[in-house]
Structure formats: structure tokens, C-alpha cells
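Researcher: Before we compare anything, I want clean individual predictions. No alignment, no superposition, just each chain on its own. First chain goes here; please echo the sequence and then give the C-alpha cells.
Model: Echoing the first chain and its structure:
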Amino acid sequence: MPSFIDSLKYLFLGLVQGIAEILPISSSGHLALFQSLLGVNAGNEDVFAIFVHFASLVALVIFFRKLIWRLIKGTCLFLFKKDKTYKHDFLLVVYLVIATIPAALLGYLFEDFFTQKFGNLLFIGIAFLVTAGILFGISFIKDSKNETYTWKNTLIAGLFQVIGIFPGISRSGITMSGGKIAGLSNDKAKEFAFLLFIPVAAGSFILSLGDVSLIMQAQSSTVILYGLSALASGLFTFLALVYIFKRFSIKHYKYFSIYLIVVGIFTIICSLL
């Protein structure tokens, strides 16, 4: 059985993942930083991230269950019943598929490169600063009233998501920024960014099943600790969606950018010590 202190460490990591996944501050970057500070998972940062990201994925599916079911139902009715009233649902599914392709291809082709960067605090610290700069600039874009998804604005969001693959770059923040630059309203940019996370996270988990199986063969205490983190991650992701998701907007990005500058500098200093 794991020790009480170790259990607290992994519960804390799950909390960090859950909250950071919803805010534009990079959950992967924060996980890498706190794993280093807590002295856990050295060399296994990427495998641990798979567990907690999958838990966040489950929470997102539960939170967006009504919208996801509507899209599935609408797509089937449009394709098989030729009911054109559901065309917008079908098109949104098509846009999600198209927007997922750039990040999926890059992640697949350069998987080893990204895996190596999970434990590189210097790289992550610089990535935090890059995210801060992008968020600060985006915070000055006025909110659009456009709530219509098109192949153009969703593809632009998908292309921006490619940047978010790098540890330390906020995937949600960058994808929302792409949506805003493409002219989507704040709410639609947020909605699309988190819907887009679902296929990307699911695909990443499926491709990483071999790594996950290795952990299942590890000591029982390790499996228990990873399970604790995953439970905490799922719970706090869902709570963050319920209580935080609708309350922050692009205009708050400048505050997140200030936070990321501080965290980025701190991470770089830690990497040099």
C-alpha cells in the first residue's frame, strides 16, 4: 500500500490536472512542474499524463453528454433519414473531424519528440512564456457575436490546436484563441475548443495503450497512486467545468498571462538548479 504522503502527492497532482485542464494555463506543463517539485514519476511523466488526461476526458464527455448525444443523433438522422433540419449538427461533426486532423497527424508523426519534452522543465518554462504572450495579445480582441461554425473558423481553431500539443502550451487556450481570431464568439470558441479535446485525447489514449499496460504490470502501490490521481483529475475537471467554465472569457486572458509569466520564470529557474 502507498504511504499517506505519497497518496496526498498524487491526489494533489490530480487536482492540478483537473483545474488546469479547464483554464488556459497548460495542464501538461503544470503536471511536469509539480511532479518535479514533488519528486515523483521521474522518467514516466508522459505515461502518468495519459492516465489523468483520460480521466479529464471522461469528465468532459459527462459534462457535454447532452450536446454529444445531440450531435450523434442529428448526424444519424441527417445521413440516414435525410432530415435536413439536422444538417447543422452533421456539419459540426464534420468540422470536428477536419479540425482534429492537423493535431492528430503531428502527434502521431512526432510522438517521441513530444514524449521527451514532458520531462524538460526548461522547454516547459519557455512554453509557459510563449503561452503568456499569445494569451495577452488575444485578450485585446473584442468579443464577436458570430455563433455560426464554418469550415474556415473551425479549421483555423484546429490549426492552432497543433501548437497546443507542446507541453507547457495551453491546448484549450491556444485553440480558443484560434477560434477568436477566426471570428467566433467567446462562448462558441470555448465550446469548440473543449469538444475538440475529446477526439484528440481519445486518440492519444488509444495510441498509448501499450504504455498504459506497462503501468498495470508495475507494483500495486504505483497502480493505486495513478488511480487516485485519475479519480481526483476526473472529479476536479468536472467541478471546474461546472463552476469555472462559463465564468471565464477571453477578456480574462491577460490575468492568466501574468500568472504564466511568473510560473514560466519559476520553471526555468527550477530547470537550472
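Researcher: Okay. Second chain, same rules.
Model: Second chain and its structure:
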Amino acid sequence: MEFRPLEQSDVKRLQRLFMESLSDLIRRERFEDADLLDEEVARLNTTIQDSFDDEDVQLYVALKDEIILGACATLPPNEIITAHADVEKGAIEIGCFYVSPHVQRQGVGRFLLESVQQELSRHEASVFYLDAGFPTAQTYWRQQLGEPVLILEHYWGPEASHMIWKRDIKK
């Protein structure tokens, strides 16, 4: 597998991966909010553009045989994180973390996480934050990162929490 920054020629394929992954996630989570998919896709498209325009935002892709299997971004911590956690100066958020439904549970997510942590370590970052609102994502991140530092109970409504993790970057 290859890990590298997003290139302009990847954009359409990455947009398809986001749409496919989000559609699958929303179906599995049984969300009935009709606007959720459009809102999330719009947010991700903004992040794609920011990755070309803003030096603080970087999107990475995991590929095999030129097929994008997954993606993640490094960016300044989002509003949910900064509003609820005492964010360290210079901290980074790992976000926009998506793996194609066709290759989930095959090590792509772990590869992305390890690769992005190595990249952050090369840039001398010391800590990262990661947050999740979707229950299946929360389960995955608990398996990968352990317990979150903060659980925002009922953040999205009754029985719908939001979780925030903070981790030192392995150097």
C-alpha cells in the first residue's frame, strides 16, 4: 500500500470514495436525516479544497494499484474539539478519516493511522486529537485508541454522544 499527500488528479476518485463511504455509513447507522449526506459531502469537499489552499490542512490517501482505498486529513482541531477540550498549542486533528466499504477490516485504517502518525512525527507534532460522532466510528476508535478523553453525552440528541480522543504522537 502507498501513503501520500492528495494530488489534484486524485480529487474525483476521492470524492467518489467519500460519497460511497458516507452512504454506506449512513445506511448502516440507520440515520434518517436527509441532509446529513449532503452536509458531510460539502464539508469534505471544502477540506479537499483547503488541502490545496491552506498549508495547515493536508489530505492523505492510501492507494493500492492506483486505487484510493482510504483517506485522512491533518488540520487544526475543529470547533467541537476546541469548545470542549483544553487543546494544547500546536495540536493537530486527524480527521476526514474514511476507508472504502469494500476494503474495511483489511488493515487500511490501521495503515492510514500509522502512516499519518509517522508523518506528524516527522513534522515534530507532539499530540493529536480525533473525534467521532457516528457510533460505528466510535467503536472503531475505541479499539484503535482506547477510551476517549471526553464523551459529550447526548451531543447529537438522546443516546447520541460525541467522543474526543487525545494521543501523544509516537516518535
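Researcher: What stands out in the second chain?
Model: The longest helix spans residues 11-29. Additionally, Helices lie at 11-29, 36-53, 79-84, 108-122, 135-145.
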